[in-house]
Amino acid sequence: MNFLKKIVDFYINSSTHVALAIVSFTVLTFIDLKIEIDYHIIAFVFTASVTAYNFVKYADIARFKHVELTPRLKVIQVYSFLVFLYLIYSLFFLSFTTLLVGFALVLLTLLYTLPVLPGFHNLRDLGGLKIFIIAIVWAVCTVALPVAASDAVFEINIQLIVYFMIRFFWVLILIIPFEIRDLKEDATHLNTIPQMIGVRGAKLIGIFFIVLSFVLFHIYHPDFKRLSFLFMSGVVGVFLLLSSEKRSLYYTSFAVEAVPVIWLLSYFIF
Length: 270
Prior knowledge:
Blueprint: H1 2-13, H2 16-32, H3 39-63, H4 71-90, H5 96-113, H6 130-149, H7 158-181, H8 193-220, H9 226-241, H10 249-255, H11 259-266
Helix pairs in contact: 2-3, 2-6, 2-11, 3-4, 3-5, 5-6, 6-7, 7-8, 8-9, 9-11
């Protein structure tokens, strides 16, 4: 049992789980927009996600060379380095347009993490922006990248814009349980949604985005898998309502973050 816990902890802490979640959303875009799945994009999204998340989580530790890394962090460091090498390799298979989108994501990640703003702040420290930056990055990565990589010519029409908006809303919804869990630990200047309107208000905002997403989905994408969307709306609604400050790391970082994976699997059921 202890060995299994170590495996699960590594799976979560190494950002493999969140990377698979992002990959799942990317595959959903390929399927929904009827784009042929590009496995080079899948490899790029996975390796870039692991690299970016581990950079954000462990950059502060890496800056202090005198801090001795624990065995767990050393393993994650080696894993991250190997994944980064494959990330570099995957770049050679991407189109110029895709690389431009990827570069924009890298730039945003650096601004989010490093103290490059006046007063030695990063974008993550700017009050109220954190959740929206994460949602934009996820939406660009999982919607704009597959479209940019496609050989088909896509017009920026209302259907594509709405699809991007729905993905943006869903990432916001998935972040709310994390913000509720971290309510006591988050600095007050971050102005997270639960800090500004309370836990109940944050849950109501999440439910509102679920309903709004379903309405937009029904109007602009009636040919998509509506039953799967309805099922996942129920699943996320339950996760949202059960969220609290007392929930464990596994509830948010494993269960809630598994939603995109469950959604992809549901496409083979409904």
